[in-house]
């Protein structure tokens, strides 16, 4: 029971940590061109305009989109990056260990997430994959390297390639990007800069970091519902176990308690004995549960439970959970498990102990 | 010395009362072996339970060496049970999963005795009860007679002055019953008070038994 609770906790905590890490890397603003309720590609020329707004420290165009593999109803997330941008190279080096940009650019190459790699390996695309852009041409792109499954949930279904290559595969015209991201140094100026962006282009949709934060929170809350359902089921099971333990004291332990009383043990001696005995049982179960949960989640990567949280037909579930431990919640489980367990034993023990031993010895 | 005066015990509610003991008066001197005879339900076990402070009477007094054990608090009653009295029960009330030695320790572990003193007591008690050769055997693997001798050793381990035996031979064959009689004889030689509640006629003709009293319907005859 502790193992199920702890495993759920480890998974949810790891996902939450991963999402929060992703959030940290998000830009302050994401600007998209918006018309008649639809998001359109954004002109690259806007980048220079935005850089002229006081307080904006960085503005970059992004090209990304999903590539749909209809046979298996699977989406890949294609992300186009400027391979000569220092920040991008640093991030890729962090993820891959090292990257030779010249070698990468020497032909059409891509870096794929762990989920994409597993999928492509299954269909024997070991070296390359042929994309079919909207202009009906064929784009054969070689697999340069793959990201490890530890690199995070969000990167699992990701394909990283040169921005021009991505533009071609996704059908984004030259001079356009999918959106523009902006960074602002002084967080107090966020509202002012947002207003300036709206004034400069009325047909824009501006997404702030806080919007993404609420999106992730909502997403995580939905997943937390699963956690809650599991938690309640486990709690119910625990209550049944407690009741069983409570009844067991009457039927199994009462003779033993009466015998000890007959031998001269005082009520407090018996309570301490039972408290010690059951604390060892409860604490060992707790520790074993946590260790099993640790092995299940971080060694075996939480089979089944992972699918409950991340979905079955989703490349994102090809992830390895990064160790994340919230001691306060583990402490709470300890208190929620050990204290009721001990009470479920001590109360009937006390009631038996104050009964005349002769009653039980008959 | 044990003095029982006007002892009564009632069970049940006001409307449905059962008088287990009715005005019992009895005096047992140090070193006496007393056999209480009577059929099942005559009140023998109830009387022994009250003498052992594991049951409170409805009224009356049980004085042991001048102290009324009926009015003892839990603390004093526990001390009395630990140091002054040893129980030999009809059923084999033992910790079956433990060894003979561990069962003896259960009666000793609250005392302040040193390891050496404990060893001496274990040796003495098991020798009297003739179970010293099975100290490390788990109780569940012992025969009925051996279990009974373990109970006797446990009753003697704290060197009490009073030994209360409730139907001690009820679950024993003739041979083991005779062995028990020999042990009682040794206890008599050690100047202990032995009270045996039984309906086994084996105790009626023993020369070392000081008194045989009969009980019927909660009264001494």
What does this molecule look like?
The complex is a heterodimer of chains A (about 350) and B (about 220). Chain A has 2 domains: about 120 residues, no CATH class; about 150 residues, no CATH class. Chain A has 12 helices and 12 strands. In chain A, strands 1, 2, 4, 5, 6, 7, 8, 9, 11 and 12 form a 10-stranded mixed beta sheet that branches. A two-stranded antiparallel ribbon of chain A has the order 3-10. About 0% of the residues of chain A have low confidence. In chain B, about 30% of the residues lie in helices and about 25% in strands. Chain B starts with a strand and ends with a strand. Chain B contains 6 helices and 10 strands. In chain B, strand 1 and strand 2 form a beta hairpin. Chain B has one domain: P-loop containing nucleotide triphosphate hydrolases (Rossmann fold, 3-Layer(aba) Sandwich), CATH 3.40.50. The longest helix of chain B is centred in the last third of the chain and has 16 residues. With about 220 residues, chain B is α/β, with parallel strands linked by helices. Chains A and B meet through helix 8 and helix 12 of A and helix 2 of B.
Main attributes of the structure:
heterodimer, A: 362 residues, alpha+beta, 2 domains, 10-stranded mixed sheet, elongated, B: 221 residues, alpha/beta, Rossmann fold, 6-stranded mixed sheet, 4-stranded antiparallel sheet, 10 strands
């Amino acid at each position: 029971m502790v193992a199920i609770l702890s495993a759920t906790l480890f998974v949810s905590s790891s996902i939450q940590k991963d999402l929060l890490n992703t959030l940290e890397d998000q830009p302050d603003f994401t600007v998209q061109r918006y018309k008649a309720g639809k998001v359109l590609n954004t002109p690259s020329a806007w980048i220079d305009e935005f850089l002229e707004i006081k307080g904006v420290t960085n503005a970059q165009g992004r090209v990304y989109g999903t590539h749909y593999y209809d046979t298996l109803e699977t989406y890949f997330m294609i992300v186009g990056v400027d391979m000569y941008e220092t920040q991008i190279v640093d991030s890729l080096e962090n993820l891959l260990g090292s990257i030779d940009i010249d070698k990468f650019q020497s032909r059409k190459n891509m870096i794929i997430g762990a989920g994409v790699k597993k999928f492509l390996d299954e269909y024997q695309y070991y070296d390359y994959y042929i994309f079919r852009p909207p202009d009906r041409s064929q784009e054969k792109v070689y697999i340069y390297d793959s990201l490890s499954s530890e690199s995070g949930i969000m990167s699992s279904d990701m394909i990283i390639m040169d921005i021009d290559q991505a533009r071609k595969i996704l059908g984004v015209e030259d001079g356009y990007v999918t959106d523009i991201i902006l960074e602002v140094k002084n967080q107090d100026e966020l509202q002012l800069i947002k207003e300036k962006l709206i004034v400069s282009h009325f047909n824009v949709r501006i997404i702030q970091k806080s919007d993404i934060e609420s999106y992730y929170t909502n997403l995580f809350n939905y997943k937390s519902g699963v956690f809650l359902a599991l938690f309640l089921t486990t709690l119910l099971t625990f209550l049944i176990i407690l009741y069983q333990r409570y009844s067991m004291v009457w039927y199994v332990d009462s003779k033993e308690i009466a015998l000890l009383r007959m031998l001269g043990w005082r009520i407090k001696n018996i309570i301490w004995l039972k408290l010690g005995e059951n604390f060892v049982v409860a604490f060992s179960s707790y520790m074993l549960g946590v260790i099993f949960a640790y092995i299940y989640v971080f060694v075996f990567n939480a089979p089944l439970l992972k699918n409950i949280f991340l979905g079955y037909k989703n490349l994102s579930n090809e992830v390895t959970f990064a160790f994340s431990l919230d001691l306060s919640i583990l402490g709470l489980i300890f208190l929620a498990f050990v204290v009721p367990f001990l009470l479920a034993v001590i109360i009937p023990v006390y009631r038996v102990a104050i009964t005349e031993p002769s009653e039980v010895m008959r | 010395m044990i003095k029982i005066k006007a002892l009564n015990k009632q069970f049940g509610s006001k409307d449905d009362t059962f008088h287990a003991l009715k005005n019992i008066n009895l005096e047992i001197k140090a070193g006496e072996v007393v056999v209480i005879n009577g059929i099942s339900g005559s009140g023998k076990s109830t009387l022994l339970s009250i003498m052992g402070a594991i049951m409170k009477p409805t009224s009356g007094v049980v004085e042991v060496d001048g102290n009324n054990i009926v009015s003892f608090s839990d603390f004093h009653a526990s001390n009395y049970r630990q140091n002054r009295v040893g129980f030999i029960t009809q059923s084999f009330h033992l910790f079956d999963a433990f060894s003979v030695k561990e069962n003896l320790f259960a009666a000793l572990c609250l005392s302040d005795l040193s390891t050496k003193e404990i060893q001496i007591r274990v040796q003495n008690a098991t020798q009297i009860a003739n179970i010293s050769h099975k100290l490390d055997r788990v109780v569940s693997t012992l025969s009925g007679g051996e279990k009974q001798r373990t109970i006797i050793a446990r009753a003697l381990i704290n060197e009490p002055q009073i030994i209360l035996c409730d139907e001690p031979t009820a679950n024993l064959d003739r041979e083991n019953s005779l062995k028990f009689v020999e042990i009682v004889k040794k206890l008599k030689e050690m100047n202990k008070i032995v009270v045996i509640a039984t309906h086994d006629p084996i105790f009626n003709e023993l020369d070392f038994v000081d008194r045989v009293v009969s009980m019927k319907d909660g009264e001494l005859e």
